[in-house]
Amino acid sequence: MSQPAGQHTVRQHNRALVLRQVADAPRQSRAQLALATGLTRATVSGLVDELLVAELLAELSPDRGSRGRPGSPLILNANGPAGLGVEVNVDYISACVLDLTGQIRARQTELVDNRLTTPAAGVDRAIRLAQRVRADAEADGLTVVGASIGVAGLVDSVGVLRRAPNLPGWQSVDLGGAFGDAMRLPVTVDNEANLAALAQLWFGESPQPRDFVLVSGEIGVGAGVVLDGQLYRGVHGHAGELGHVVVDPAGPSCGCGANGCLEQVAGQEAMLVKAGVVAERGVISTGLAAPDGAVAELHRRAAAGDARTRQALGDAGTALGIAIAGFINVVDVPVVLLGGLYARLGEWLVAPISAELDRRVVSREWAPVEVGVSGLGSDACVRGAAATVINALIESG
Amino acid sequence: MSQPAGQHTVRQHNRALVLRQVADAPRQSRAQLALATGLTRATVSGLVDELLVAELLAELSPDRGSRGRPGSPLILNANGPAGLGVEVNVDYISACVLDLTGQIRARQTELVDNRLTTPAAGVDRAIRLAQRVRADAEADGLTVVGASIGVAGLVDSVGVLRRAPNLPGWQSVDLGGAFGDAMRLPVTVDNEANLAALAQLWFGESPQPRDFVLVSGEIGVGAGVVLDGQLYRGVHGHAGELGHVVVDPAGPSCGCGANGCLEQVAGQEAMLVKAGVVAERGVISTGLAAPDGAVAELHRRAAAGDARTRQALGDAGTALGIAIAGFINVVDVPVVLLGGLYARLGEWLVAPISAELDRRVVSREWAPVEVGVSGLGSDACVRGAAATVINALIESG
Fold first, then answer.
1. What is the ipTM of this complex?
2. Whole-angstrom Cα distance, residue B127 to residue B123?
3. Residues of A in contact with B225 (CB under 8 A)
4. How many CB pairs under 8 A join A and B?
5. Above pLDDT 90, what percent of chain B?
6. Please, what is the Cα angle at A142 between A141 and A143, to 5 degrees?
7. Mean pLDDT over residues B134-141, rounded?
8. Residue B149: strand, helix, or coil
9. Beta strand pairing status for A92-99 and A104-111?
């Protein structure tokens, strides 16, 4: 006979409470957990035993330094269940595994140009990368229990990539189904900027603000909006498409079907062409993931003071500032963080962005906007993806 | 001796529950209210007696048509406490009183040009208007218990107008203090587009969506954003400043200090000048509130098919569409409603706005955006303002 539903729910709730408590403050004893949660010591002990068996918690040897009867400090098990994060972007794919404590335990990135592949071939390659990274983590003693896929496009609620403006052939691609079938794991799919913003919220340097927009630049430009410590997704889950805000109504045409969109003026390829680093758009592996690629060259030229490069970055910063000012005027968030490519080029982008915000944000005089650079680098999306698996595991107890 | 705090809070909570129940479904008896709320009949009877004494509820004569012992149907008291709403806009001021049932019981609008007055004189005039409307309502047997002021500018959390881009001298104007002192009432202050959006949520035609943006045009352009049935205010309360989203980086300078803002391209004065109805900006009482003003002439010319007017409205619609598409790409709401001046001109604005959304919203293919016209007219802000007073009264029990 199974337990009544109510009992089961209460027990699961309390397991999650204990697990979250250990995640937030490791090395507590059972007695300390009982105090912190308000549960009885007997209840806590039973739950902890279950969590040890499930390999979600681990026990350290008793702390002899404390007074009275020593309790065994409890920590999240860094060698138990783990989360797999995958990123499918325009010019690279990436995967990583995080253990329960949030440490990266395996990671690989591969330069590709998904504009030149069919969705089936591109997804297959990403699955193979993910399987290699999973195998690395499992060889290290971890058990991958779920995966989350970040993709540079718009995703529906059942894990289907509806549209990726920078990957013209990739429409209605069932990423959730493909990864789930191949890897035999529960899989969720989200926009890459959303996952990067979650990574920022969870792993950003202290003091990490709870209201911010993370503007991620790669070939496409996306934004993840966090309000009061929660990702803001919008009614259909498509919020944050900052790359398709118009900054120049007479500007160049965009893969989304419109023209003058921010990413056509301030995206990676627009900057590279304008700086003269590449002659035209669509060059393979130019991006942030390529250590000796065109973005590295752009950075070198900017650092060396090359006038054309500095002008290209200044223009991109101005366009970004116009779009971000509009965003802040309608959404009213106090912090802008630059991610991905924009973080790497932040030295030359923050000033022109700030100048536009100082001109254009109507509440600027008494509600100034802070513009900063994310420290997470190009790992943000995969880390955020893997961490959603971990967090869901902890929340469900 | 006063009651313990806990008891007091519970009683107030239950009073509010009963009052909200009557507001949502009038003409229930005490017995029906007990069933609906889960409270005992004795508790409900006690609370109803208090609410009758406070004149929040009224009792109709017993309904003889029903079986068993007849109960007296209860309704909100339409002749008891009332809410005062005031709007201070650029070229008109307006006030109205709503009774508890949400009916307008007194209303006046006055054409002014607040650009030509000092804040002190402008506020004084608005207070005098509000006092006349209050006197009308009180002569009708109502008791005004609070006021809410809507203003075409950015308001802080303590009722100070920080800045009104279309009223250059109006900075740091303590509207809450001025109205509160003069009228001896509790006063709240909010942005006029926010209050108009609340009016739309509460009084809009059924089926009223619970996720929408109301784009209000007058001399300035503002937006009220409603997400899941709640007004979205942003971190500092300044969300929805759509009028200052850039639609033309090379466009005309704006009162906010920037240039190319939507309201300089698609606001009332831009349309009037472009259509040739007025020769230049800044004419007194041109607006929606003036029945024989320039906006009425604009409407006549558009209806008569005047090519220059139609072109001016088409251009304004395109600019609005560009700004709204950007808004939807970042905030992801499915419904746009046009308010104020834009509602009156909706016949010629909806098509060019929709055309831009069809080109520019990246999720358009599977998440289409509906563009409609608010039926509330130019009363939306004052009705929303007065209704916030009423709603606060009902919520507090």
1. 0.90
2. 6
3. 330
4. 141
5. 85
6. 125
7. 97
8. strand
9. antiparallel
Using alpha carbons, list the distances in angstroms from residue B303 to B265, B300, B306, B336, B347: 21, 5, 8, 23, 9
Q: How far apart are CA B202 and CA B183, in angstroms?
A: 26
Paired tokens of A276: 């003269």
Residue-wise pLDDT for A98-148, tens only, equals 999 999 999 999 999 899 899 999 999 999 999 999 999 999 999 999 999
Angle between helical axes of A30-37 and A5-24 (0-180°, round to 10) = 110
pTM: 0.92
Q: What is d(CA A222, CA A391) in angstroms, rounded to the nearest whole number?
A: 23
**Is B323 close to A326, i.e. CB distance below 8 A?**
yes
Percent of chain A's residues with pLDDT above 90: 85
Enter the tokens of residue A230: 């929660």
Residue B24 has, within 13 A of its CA and on its CB side, a CA count of 10
CA nearest neighbour of B102 among B373, B384, B377: B384
- B276-309 tens-digit pLDDT: 998 877 655 556 666 668 889 999 999 999 999 9
Q: How far is B171 from chain A (nearest CA, A)?
A: 11
Tell how strand B212-217 and strand B335-340 pair up. parallel
Chain A residues in contact with B233 (beta carbon < 8 A): 332
Cis peptide before B207 (omega within 30 of 0): yes
B82 SS3 class:
strand
Mean residue pLDDT across chain B:
92
* Token pair of A23 as six digits: 């995640």
Which residues of chain B neighbour A154 with C-beta distances below 8 Å? 362-363
Distance between CA atoms of residues A238 and B363, nearest Å: 7
Instruction: Give residue A280's pLDDT.
Output: 74
The model's confidence at residue A271, banded by pLDDT at 50, 70 and 90, is very high
